[in-house]
């Protein structure tokens, strides 16, 4: 005989799941906590799902089967199930997942002991047709109040909800938010003052398979739109206008969250800190620590002569503009003759963010035997200055070396926190087509590009690496195999003492076409192209050179306009507009196919050839914010 008022009411909607439904229902029936009712809606199944459920119901009177004559919006089943629920708590379950035996026992115990928590999920184990990772990794209620503004941190079929709260505020699923109806309900609970949390225990096996509705592109798009409306409403609380909230929402991905620009996350958290009556400050701190890390001071070395100061200033500007509040910088400039006037200009970068800077005059006589080569005519001799870094600051554990022909697009903290282990450096593989031949020439398996190096100063000093580098420079010259100056020497010297990191930390111009001769797989390359941290204008493709066709040329000029050399940005824009006007007349004379192009909001004309070239781009791809959709789990 059924108990009139069970502790838990379990609500499940089933549709054509004859292959999975029995396992899902048995996982509920076999719970160690047995005081529940199970309300199952068959949503017009056309296979033998109903027969499977009826057979189970005949053996256990805790099951109530409600049959819909036709398939309807399954959210309507959940709404009806919540109304029919008699229990103190309402638990959700999907027809293709598996609840572990102690799920209800643990959830009831937690909710009984934490009366302020309205909704409780659990961690999950993902299985089935996937190698995807879980997105459910936060349990603390205060941190959850922050996380939910970015993405849905709860797995729907794991939840248990306090029914009295739902009834008090007349809350229910919204049928318009299909496939993200749960996210909307969590938002409504929070807006009514309720707390949400997760048990940090895997209590549900979450099945991924091709038949899942949100795994298809059609339903994923519906889910995305629904989830974005909820995110907009959540973030709107921290901004003065819908536009500001929308810009914040567009700046971050909901999943996978780790691919996000750290600066974009930080900006939203800083906005939240003004509204600690809405989200607890302790939750912001926990979320910040989880995703942005601890406070750090980053020691960065550059080598520059006076002719490279503009590019050095642009690089420093990009670092500062993308830095987090928890990052401070000490810049060390290996000085190849920078004038006093230009040093004063570099100091103006402190208007963006304060930092320490030290100019280190290098004794040029130390490099009298370090040659330039025909292949490296575009590389200044200052590149050899890198040999001396550990000797100049032996008290440092490590440092970051960057070429001056770079811009930084995100926080450097992730790179800085890389565990170098017992290696001399952490670096990115050299990705131009001749790299395999260079590796053979230097008798090493893989070579790195020296435009970005995280240097293990302690190990360099212990192993007397600087002296060895000078010795090997002479050795390679005598052997006639010195080509790429100090980069060759360091690759020859370090060999198996190099830790290779993601190409996003040194995005070279030819990254996209390197797939046939690199150790990185296509996913690594795509990730780097979409989310670069350091863009390196290596080879001869320098943005400031005439007719430069580098695919990221605009990023250099974007940061230049914030630098002390912003007047040169204005000159660049005048020159650019002049070229486009010439293009217009050229296109008219050709009388070929033409298309519209907008410059500063004004419609102009340019040749079809120009349009096609711009779309093709040198990297061979068009950047897209959605490249990752095909190989990750679709969640709210």
Describe the structure.
The chain is of the alpha/beta class and 636 residues long. It has 23 helices and 19 strands. The C terminus is likely disordered. The longest helix is centred in the last third of the chain and has 25 residues. The two termini are 39 Å apart. The strands form four sheets. Strands 3-2-1-4-7-6-8-5 form an eight-stranded mixed beta sheet, sandwiched between helices. A seven-stranded mixed beta sheet has the order 11-10-9-12-15-14-16. The protein has a two-stranded antiparallel ribbon with strand order 13-17. It has four domains: 203 residues, Alpha-Beta Complex (Spore Coat Polysaccharide Biosynthesis Protein SpsA, Chain A), CATH 3.90.550.10; 62 residues, no CATH class; 241 residues, Spore Coat Polysaccharide Biosynthesis Protein SpsA, Chain A (Alpha-Beta Complex), CATH 3.90.550; 57 residues, no CATH class.
